[in-house]
Amino acid sequence: MEIVILAVVIAVVVIGALGGLVVGSRRKKQLPEPPPTTPDITAPPAEPHVGDEAETPRDETRRTIEEVDLPDGGTATVEEPPVVEELEIPQIEVPEPTAGRLVRLRARLSRSQNALGKGLLTLLSREHLDDDTWEEIEDTLLTADVGVQPTQELVERLRERVKVLGTRTPEELRTLLREELITLVGPDMDREVKTEPATSKPGIVMVVGVNGTGKTTTTGKLARVLVADGRSVVLGAADTFRAAAADQLQTWGERVGAHTVRGPEGGDPASVAFDAVKEGKEMGSDVVLIDTAGRLHAKTGLMDELGKVKRVVEKHAPLDEVLLVLDATTGQNGLIQARVFAEVVNITGIVLTKLDGTAKGGIVVAVQRELGVPVKLIGLGEGADDLAPFEPAAFVDALIGE
């Protein structure tokens, strides 16, 4: 019995010992690892001083200032920001008023044109005026493009008045010649450019002429004259055949604030003219100036096209003015051009350009006689304001000198 009890006690002790070992092993697994006895501590980087880099200094070879390459000039190059181009806004010019334009330009006209007047005065001042002298006077007038019929009329009147006058002082001769030339030019002709219609706005002016006479330039200069007089202007670029004609006219318009109506290059000029008058009415403008193509007078088809432009424009309103631009240096050829244009459109006025060059003043008389219409404007130079109303007395004074 004692042996049994002893065996049971030993079994209990063994079981208890085994249980303690299991519990101890579990506790050991849950406990954290003990910290190291000597932890590694990293020292913070040193604070940077003025001029130091924002990183830990490194051992490297340093160069002196003499060894450092500098840009040319010893200063750093600073790149400038790109310049943004601004859109150019055309500056509106203030043209010179028409009053006194010819007075200002009289000296220029006198320097280039007084050969006619001086030549006549020299011949008339001879002591004896025989037939040979009067023939020289006729030749002088014909050379100046006065024309045969006007020359004969002037010589007859001069011969009669000189015979009655008897003695001829230089002042008397000058007065005599001035009076006769003014009469020949036609002081009573209406030279006003019609831009004010009798019924309603706008006034419609069509400008015609052959290539090279300065037609488009004259249209632009006429716009300046009208703007200077306080009129609002619309330009119609109906010259669609010549390259850059519309650009040229638009530039003239932008300089004085005039609106330009244009169409595609090679387009229908009658359509452009129609639209210009239409827009002129809608905008309430005072005047519409229509620049037509510089047609060669020998091309019948182009002249027919000019007639079409006139008919289309008159669907809006009748034309108030048809100005023919002639180059004063062309002489008799200009008269041929004038005759052909007059057959196609009803010319109401003439503009003589380049009268300050090699032109001969007699063309004024000849073209007026040819067409029966007055010279209304003259171009005396290349300047923007060198277009002036034609004044017979001032013109003659410039021819014969003061």
From TrEMBL:
Residues 49-66 have a biased composition (Basic and acidic residues). Residues 374-387 form the SRP54-type proteins GTP-binding domain. Residues 27-78 are annotated as: Disordered. Its EC number is 3.6.5.4. Pfam families: SRP54, SRP54_N. It is found in: Cell membrane; Cytoplasm. Gene3D superfamilies: P-loop containing nucleotide triphosphate hydrolases (3.40.50.300), Signal recognition particle SRP54, nucleotide-binding domain (1.20.120.140). SUPFAM superfamilies: Domain of the SRP/SRP receptor G-proteins (SSF47364), P-loop containing nucleoside triphosphate hydrolases (SSF52540). It catalyses: GTP + H2O = GDP + phosphate + H(+). It is an enzyme of class 3 (hydrolase). It is a peripheral membrane protein. GTP binds at residues 209-216, 291-295, 353-356. Keywords: Cell membrane, Cytoplasm, GTP-binding, Hydrolase, Membrane, Nucleotide-binding, Receptor. This is Signal recognition particle receptor FtsY. The lineage of its organism: Bacteria, Bacillati, Actinomycetota, Actinomycetes, Kitasatosporales.
